[in-house]
Amino acid sequence: MTCPSCGFTNVVRLQQVELEQEFICEGCLQTVQLKDADKSVAKAIDAIEDAMGGLGNMLRREFR
């Protein structure tokens, strides 16, 4: 995530964005509030979880 104050690229987890947490920029030590205004990250996390669940079900059927 690029800091809006200094431009430093910080690493954040998808869950942090989903929960709209704050993080401290490693470049300038400013607090940055994460936003997922259209809930696109939450939707992407749901899609990933669904896909992983489907993969698990498929593998269980294949290797019985």
Poorly predicted spans: none
Strand arrangement in the largest pleated sheet: 1-2
- Please summarize the sheet with the most strands: 2 strands, antiparallel
What portion of the residues fall into strands of 2 or more residues? 5-15%
> What overall form do the CA principal axes indicate?
elongated
Name the average pLDDT.
92
DSSP strand tally: 2
With helices defined by DSSP (H or I, 4 residues minimum), what is the helix count?
A: 2
Please describe what this structure looks like:
This protein is mainly α and 64 residues long. It has one domain (14-62). Helix content is 44%, strand content 9%. The chain has helices at 14-18, 40-62; strands at residues 22-24, 31-33. A two-stranded antiparallel sheet has the order 1-2. The radius of gyration is 17 Å and the shape is elongated. 0% of the residues are buried.
Concise synopsis of the structure shown:
This protein has helices at residues 14-18, 40-62; strands spanning 22-24, 31-33. It is mainly α and 64 residues long.
Question: How would you describe this structure in keywords?
Answer:
mainly alpha, 2 helices, 9% strand, elongated, 64 residues, two-stranded antiparallel sheet
Set down the secondary structure blueprint.
Elements: H1 14-18, E1 22-24, E2 31-33, H2 40-62
Antiparallel strand pairs: 1-2
